[in-house]
Amino acid sequence: MITIVVGTNRKDSVSFKVALHYAEVLKAKNITNSILNLRELPEDYIISALYENIGKNEQFNKIRDRMNKSEKFVFVVPEYNGSFPGILKAFIDGLDRAKALADKKCALVGLSAGDQGAGLALSHFTDILNYCGTNVLAYRLRLPKIGDSMTDSKITNQLYVSKIHNQAQKLIEF
Amino acid sequence: MITIVVGTNRKDSVSFKVALHYAEVLKAKNITNSILNLRELPEDYIISALYENIGKNEQFNKIRDRMNKSEKFVFVVPEYNGSFPGILKAFIDGLDRAKALADKKCALVGLSAGDQGAGLALSHFTDILNYCGTNVLAYRLRLPKIGDSMTDSKITNQLYVSKIHNQAQKLIEF
Amino acid sequence: MITIVVGTNRKDSVSFKVALHYAEVLKAKNITNSILNLRELPEDYIISALYENIGKNEQFNKIRDRMNKSEKFVFVVPEYNGSFPGILKAFIDGLDRAKALADKKCALVGLSAGDQGAGLALSHFTDILNYCGTNVLAYRLRLPKIGDSMTDSKITNQLYVSKIHNQAQKLIEF
Amino acid sequence: MITIVVGTNRKDSVSFKVALHYAEVLKAKNITNSILNLRELPEDYIISALYENIGKNEQFNKIRDRMNKSEKFVFVVPEYNGSFPGILKAFIDGLDRAKALADKKCALVGLSAGDQGAGLALSHFTDILNYCGTNVLAYRLRLPKIGDSMTDSKITNQLYVSKIHNQAQKLIEF
Fold first, then answer.
1. In chain B, N or C: fewer CB atoms in 10 Å?
2. Which domains does chain D have, with CATH numbers?
3. What's the number of CA atoms in the CB half-sphere (13 Å) around residue A92?
4. Where are the alpha helices (DSSP H) in chain B?
């Protein structure tokens, strides 16, 4: 069971489209998987689900449960302002670290409109995951110029298709 | 004019207390300053002020204006899960980068309950600020075990008091 | 078979002493291991074993072979100037990445005289190892104030002893 | 007076060619400058100029003096194995931090054969410079696919030419 986390709450995000692609790849390998889109976070998440309200937001608790029950993750991380979206880190801040992240495994996919491919974002996010006890697959995928690599919401850049396939296989064996 | 940003929206945060201390130090040096506490962010910030709603939230637009008008910043950054709080990055994601951050200057103060003093947080945040065009003072301050360093909400660790004083002076001359 | 790399070429380094401790821990767990001290690098390494001379220095080729044959590593990384020692990265630059590092696994131990415990060094080095294809155990160990934690060249800080034991066990199961 | 440091000791490096270009740009702006090529490091640098031999290698002491006398720097940083060359950090490790780096200012230029443009290298190196007290210009330049951007050892990619010009101007005003 692998949960694919869409690392932004932007509506109709490219990250969600990449997650859909990844889900198909895993399904073709007979791996049960599920997409968790940060679009599902409560509107008042930053107040109702953090700090003194940790664990008290029923809507978010369902999301926490999904993370707790998953053994492996794929995080799809778009580049915003040279790093990951703030909402992705805010999401991590609302989890039960010990149950959701410790001693688990994950793969990272970075994407950007520009030419960096979220390289720094993946570096920063690896530090956070390692701090939380999640082992990160060495093969971190960078997908720069993602807009030029898709047609009709599908990834058509064959190099990217191949890289995702390879990463998925490595994650399964990790 | 220096704006001191409290890098969390936690209620009664230690970061706010450190910001109050920093404000006193700047005032004693005759530097006009103002505290911007992320506690002031709208409850539905992650929906109402980002992406297609950028610039459309009147409550947040007042905060954007304060950032746009300030030439220098101090960011007080508490360590959450091995990096900065997600809300701090989400705050950056809602700004007008060109007006708020480009070609400006700032100093960073990291603090933690544990012994890291937000070292990784400051590294990550420097990458983000540099990407946005903000020059970061080399002298990044780490204040580990901040709880043991305060009495009655005041910083009583004299080494920390001295370091803040030195950083403030460097920021003024930066 | 685990190779413990002493990440500096300093004579009589504390890192070497920590490596000796780690070797004992692994031995007690019946894991064959070997210490590779960067002190063994040729004096003219930066000329004779890099760039156009890659693979041509017989003395260094023996070290390359040891890396190629090992499946797991422990890197003991002292903090120099806020990161890892330059010689540790120069060592990586002289390896055959595909044979020495790709698809292997490692654990990182950082140490420092000061209070950072090589936190940034481990972050930087993780990026390098991931680039080279080496999976890094999430549980990165920081050992600040290492001088105060040793007596007669032995680690006597029981918290550190316990952490090393835990990391070694995790590396074996990784 | 600006010193341009070629961040590798590779013979006939592309970094040296980029440094030559930068020197011309600074000269055209009437800024005195000088190139310091790490190719000039002693062959046995890693033994004769570090640790117990710090400050004892006369050949390297001349280089240390050049760093001590310079107020601003440009570091040209090629990407090796996902970060800066080990020799660049080893060079930093042999300096007198207080005299060479503290309270000075610098600009960073990253270059790579591949598509990263040394992004992570510049992030790591910024941490090190900040630790040593050197203020880093926010506008860090990444020059990916540098091979495709040069003709007859000259930078012919006009976007890169323009970016270097802009950075040089910012460094002068920093």
1. N
2. 2-173 (3.40.50.360)
3. 31
4. 14-28, 45-48, 58-69, 86-93, 97-100, 119-131, 158-173
Asked if C126 and A126 come within 8 Å (Cβ–Cβ), the reply is yes
Q: Which residue of C has its CA nearest to B117?
A: C116
SS (H, E, C) A34-93: EEEEHHHCCCCHHHHCCHHHCCCCHHHHHHHHHHHHCCEEEEEEECECCECCHHHHHHHH
Kindly state the DSSP code that residue D103 receives in the 8-state scheme: T
Q: Which of D67, D71, D127, D73 is nearest to D97 (CA)?
A: D67
Interface test with D, best of A79, A111, A112, A115 (most D CBs within 10 A): A115
Helices (H), C49-85: 58-69
Q: What one-character DSSP code corresponds to residue D49?
A: S
Q: Looking at residue C142, what DSSP letter applies?
A: E
Partner residue opposite A140 with nearest CB, options C103, C130, C140: C130
Say whether B115 and C119 touch across the interface (CB within 8 A): no
Mean pLDDT along residues C133-139? 98
Exposure on the CB side of residue A164, measured as CA atoms within 13 A: 26
Burial of C162 from C-beta contacts in 10 A (0-12 / 13-18 / 19+): exposed
CA C154, distance to chain mean position in Å, is: 18
Q: Measured over all CA atoms, what is the biggest interatomic distance in chain D, rounded to whole angstroms?
A: 47
Q: What is the pLDDT of residue B88?
A: 98
Q: How many CB atoms lie within 10 A of CB B113?
A: 13
Q: Which amino acid is at C18?
A: V
Q: Which residues does chain D have within 8 Å of residue C11's beta carbon, measured at their own beta carbons?
A: 51-52
Asked if D86 is an interface residue toward chain B (Cβ–Cβ < 8 A), one would say: no
User: Nearest Cβ partner of D138 from B134, B139, B140?
Assistant: B134
CA-wise closest residue to B19 among B34, B1, B32: B34
Average pLDDT over residues B5-22: 98
Tracing tokens 């937000």 back to the chain, one arrives at B118
What is this model's ipTM? 0.97
Q: Which CA distances in Å does B123 have to A6, A123, C18, C47?
A: 25, 11, 27, 32
- Both structure tokens of B58: 């009147």
pLDDT, tens digit, 9 for 90 and up, residues B102-142: 999 999 999 999 999 999 999 999 999 999 999 999 999 99
DSSP classification of residue A167: H
Nearest CA in chain C to A134: C138
Query: How many other CB atoms sit within 10 Å of the CB of residue C23?
Result: 17
Chains that touch C (3 or more CB pairs under 8 A): A, B, D
- D169 lies within 8 A of chain A by CB: no
**A94 touches D at CB < 8 Å:** no
